[in-house]
Amino acid sequence: MTDFAATKAMFDLPDGVIYLDGNSLGPLPKAAGDRVNDMMVKEWGQMLITGWNKAGWMALPTGLGDRIGRLVGAEPGTVVTGDTLSIKVYQAVASALELRPDRKVVLSDNGNFPSDLYMVDGLLRSLGPDYELRVVAPEEVAASITEDVAVLMLTEVDYRSGRMHDMKALTELAHANRVVTVWDLAHSAGAVPVDLSACNADFAVGCTYKYLNGGPGAPAFIYVAPRLADRARPALSGWLGHDAPFAFDLDYRPGSGIERMRVGTPPIIQMTALSAAMDIWDMANMTDVRAKSIELTELFISRLEATCPELELASPRDPNQRGSQVSFRFTEGYAAMQALIARGVIGDFRAPDIMRFGFTPLYIDEQDVERAAGIMADIMGNRLWDTPEYKVRQRVT
Ligand SMILES: Cc1ncc(COP(=O)(O)O)c(C=O)c1O
């Protein structure tokens, strides 16, 4: 059994704060500060450029990839970290499209994160007017997997509602129609058990600053199924994905396996912080995390529904259909969230009216949920959100 009291003790959370926004930005692992400081002073400071070899910096992207891979059911050697998620979406979809050169349609849904759609729109514009991004409602995805589709690109857990797609069933359906799949695991990795290998997924991408707690700007990751890894052209063919980067050949020759999905110089400071976060993940088992996450979300929903009639549940009621977040609709959701934050309960707001709360068993327990629900009941029952200061929109919501 995962010892959640032990994992909670490994995070540096401000006193009095109940942090229900780990689905957006995970909190600081206590070990990260010293780890990063050591890396800077002892490695960067003393080793200078020799750190790439002596401190193993060059191997960090794949080493971290394997540690993340364990959480998402990826075979060793199939995940690499680097770049941002938007970039990795572009790379995965571009690579996937090249595997179906006879088809020109990328299928996605309107619950997808806008950046995924923007990136693919940009890619398809560069490829030419024959290409099409087809966006349907989430419940229409299965029926829209037709034989003209080259790539199915979906985010498994909807960032607003937490609704979850059935990765295994949709991947199977896609393959039956010779469609290549790209799964975005931004709201899945560290949130719900994922088994990329058992689902026979083709490509997957995700970020490490949400449930994985790698810190603001932490790198993304990409997975390529072993059966495709030496076949997929990386599309973003940077020098560190070259077979022999230090040969400085003028012609690009992709490296073997997942190494070819690397692009440029990895962010070592950020990856060092991520490695401190992954030490905590090494203590956790995703089956335990999921069981606890369901307990916490069920408790939160039942408390809020009993005390806050103004709120409408925007997440699926069936816990098996949602990720590790709970969202409620409320027309004054922005102001209500500001009032909550002022009382130390941190969630976030997604336009037009969604109040979003992430549940992260590594550092959130039942007492936190009970306290947060009590504060919410006070704010809603006494209209404490109804003041001008809570209605001024900030840049990041
Ligand atoms: C599902 C999903 N995809 C893509 C992104 C964009 O990621 P990045 O800003 O790291 O490029 C996000 C960011 O929150 C996201 O939630």
Question: Can you give a write-up of this model?
Answer:
The structure is a single chain. The protein has 397 residues and is an alpha/beta fold. 38% of the residues lie in helices and 15% in strands. It is built from 14 helices and 15 strands. The strands form 4 sheets. A 7-stranded mixed β-sheet has the order 4-10-9-8-7-5-6, with helices on both faces. Strands 11-12-15-14 form a 4-stranded antiparallel β-sheet. The radius of gyration is 22 Å and the shape is globular. The mean pLDDT is 97. Bound molecules: pyridoxal-5'-phosphate (PLP). Pyridoxal-5'-phosphate binds next to helix 5 and helix 6. The site of pyridoxal-5'-phosphate has 12 residues, from helix 5 and helix 6.
